[in-house]
């Protein structure tokens, strides 16, 4: 019985380490692509960005998250952008909470 508890604890710890390693945040890797649509929000907006690899990201852009009004930009449909921030994935959608707008063309 003691060995079973030790093995269970070890398996749990290994699973925890593996799950934490796969959830690593790539905040320094920019997401670049074309703005396909924009949906307004309370203190910002969400831009749907499609990359050259046909990946779709829903980028949440707000004045607070980009560090103030001096760093905030209102994107337009058709803009080619590069943004950085905290990324996560739901079952079928990629999201990014933008902390930096790197470029807009």
UniProtKB/TrEMBL annotation:
Name this polypeptide is given: Lysyl-tRNA synthetase class II
Keywords, ordered alphabetically: Aminoacyl-tRNA synthetase, Ligase, Signal
GO molecular function: aminoacyl-tRNA ligase activity
Residues in the signal sequence: 1-23
């Amino acid at each position: 019985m003691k060995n079973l508890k030790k093995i269970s604890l070890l398996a749990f710890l290994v699973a925890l380490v593996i799950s934490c390693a796969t959830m690593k945040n790539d905040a320094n890797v920019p997401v670049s692509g074309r703005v396909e649509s924009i949906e307004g929000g309370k203190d910002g907006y969400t831009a749907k960005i499609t990359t050259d690899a046909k990946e779709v990201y829903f980028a949440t852009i707000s004045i607070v998250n980009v560090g103030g009004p001096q760093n905030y930009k209102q994107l337009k449909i058709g803009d080619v952008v590069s943004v950085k921030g905290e990324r996560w994935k739901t079952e079928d959608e990629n999201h990014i909470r933008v902390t930096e707008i790197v470029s807009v063309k």
